Amino acid sequence: MQAHRAVVASVLVLASCASAPKLSYYTLDMSPSGSARSDANLVVQRFTVTERLNRSQIVIQATPVRVEYYATARWATGPGEMVQQKLGAELGPADAEARVLTVSGRVTGFEQVDTSSGSRSLVRLDVEIRDRGGDRFDAPLIETTYEASRALDGNSVDALVRALSRAVEDIAVQIANDVNKLD
Questions:
Q1: Cα gap 95→59, rounded to integer Å
Q2: Which residue from 4, 92, 116, 150 has the highest number of Cβ atoms inside 10 Å of its Cβ?
Q3: Which CATH superfamily hosts domain 23-180?
Q4: What distance in Å separates the CA atoms of residue 155 and residue 112, rounded to the nearest whole number?
Q5: How far apart are CA 58 and CA 172, in angstroms?
Q6: Strands (DSSP E) along the chain, which ranges?
Q7: Closest Cα to residue 180, out of 38, 33, 41, 2?
Q8: Alpha-carbon span 23 to 76, nearest angstrom
Q9: Total Cβ atoms within 10 A of residue 145
Q10: How many Cβ atoms from other residues are within 10 Å of residue 56's Cβ?
Q11: What are residue 8's phi and psi, to 5 degrees?
Q12: pLDDT of 78-117, one tens digit each?
């Protein structure tokens, strides 16, 4: 009887493993595009994430009032960490003699948005740029929300992740342009 229970338990465990969907893990393309040029050295610091995005599941804004998630697609690391790394790759070191500024913020949009005209990526970042070594209670040199959206070049998670990567690159260009306008 004991052996029979063990066999049944083993079969149930194997059956549950066989029926579990295979998960796929994704990350942004961290290759620098070379399109963001700044006169300053920009050190990218931590980006926090809104609660809705603070998960491994990839978000789909299916309608203006309904949020969904991809069933088997997951982020390999958190969106805040990916944005920090990607911006770091894009804004990378400039002239060692140049002014050093820090870039930090909050990820408030990092998702697929489905519309009647098709699916798009959306990246929205609340960004603060400060002099490095300055007092954290001083007003930021720049405090603004950057947003970029890209059409998906297909109907897949891969297409979404590529579009999100390009959208972060677009924001890096906006950040570099704004920094270049500082005195």
A1: 38
A2: 150
A3: ABC-type transport auxiliary lipoprotein component (3.40.50.10610)
A4: 11
A5: 22
A6: 24-26, 41-49, 57-63, 66-75, 100-115, 118-131, 142-151
A7: 38
A8: 11
A9: 12
A10: 14
A11: -60, -45
A12: 999 999 999 999 998 767 788 899 999 999 999 999 999 9
The token pair that represents 80 in the structure block: 């805040």
61, two tokens: 């804004």
State the Cα–Cα distance between residues 32 and 35, nearest whole angstrom. 8
| Residues facing residue 143 across a β-bridge | 128
Location of structure tokens 């007092």:
135
* Residue range 7-52, pLDDT digits in tens: 555 555 555 555 678 999 999 999 999 999 898 999 999 999 999 9
21 Cβ contact list (under 8 Å, min separation 6): 71, 72
The pair phi, psi for residue 30, each rounded to 5°, is: -85, 5
Domain segments of the chain: what residues? 23-180
